[in-house]
Specification:
The protein is 40% helix and 15% strand. By secondary structure, it is α/β, with parallel strands linked by helices. The protein has an eight-stranded parallel β-barrel, surrounded by five helices. It is globular, with a radius of gyration of 17 Å. The structure holds 2-phosphoglycolic acid (PGA). The site of 2-phosphoglycolic acid has 13 residues, from strand 8.
Amino acid sequence: MGSHVQGAKSLLAANWKMNPASASDAADLVRAILEPYKAHADHVQLAICPPYPWLLGVAELIENTGVELGAQDCYWEKAGAFTGEVSAAMLTGWCQWVIVGHSERRAYFHETDEDVARKAAAGIAEGLQVILCVGELDEHYTAGQTEPVVGGQVRAGLSQLAADDSPHLVIAYEPVWAIGTGKNAEPEHAYKTMRLIRHTVGEVIGQGAARKVRVLYGGSVNAANIESYVELPLCDGCLVGGASLKADEFSKMIATVAEVYGHIPSTT
Ligand code: PGA
């Protein structure tokens, strides 16, 4: 069934955002997820993306567990007078992943498509796997403008990448109206938009390279609805916010994804 990227496991990326509030709570959350993850590591690739100050502590806890580590943002310059910023180059010792272009960064911190493109390029140039987030606002969705808006964000986000960057790129489709609202997208809407994303990536970097780009869904994914996304043929996994902070719920989600992926043969 479908076109999951060949040989890939399903990817679950946990975007903790600015949570939890203490290092010890972060450690407790990781420990609570590690044990249940072990049983499903064959089918699920797990990337935890904590706030910067918790990265080192989480890195120690996940050593030799197969769990991967990601940051939630990066800056494109390697080093210099950029107060408050953290460069992609600084993350490489600890992280395998970096999220760029999350809608909260775009909305609250005024990141432009051009900034996002530079971050994506810097992340890949430094050897990180990049999760590039795209998604339409509620007003676009209700006006039927999802495809042009998301297509434009994908084109812009890829503008500084080359075809051979594709194995290091993941695109997360996250409708902004679905993030943190409990109002997850209909799987049919997610499917159509993911198909558009793949099509657009193919136009920009070529169909062959586009097949190596993984596509995730994100936006109010929880234990009750995750199956409806990961069973979609074009969906390579999910980016999870709120539910990734609840160890029991997130563990159930890992088990559900493993169950679905254990039954879907990878084809391209
Ligand atoms: P949510 O967040 O799962 O809480 O909706 C998703 C995200 O922002 O990546």
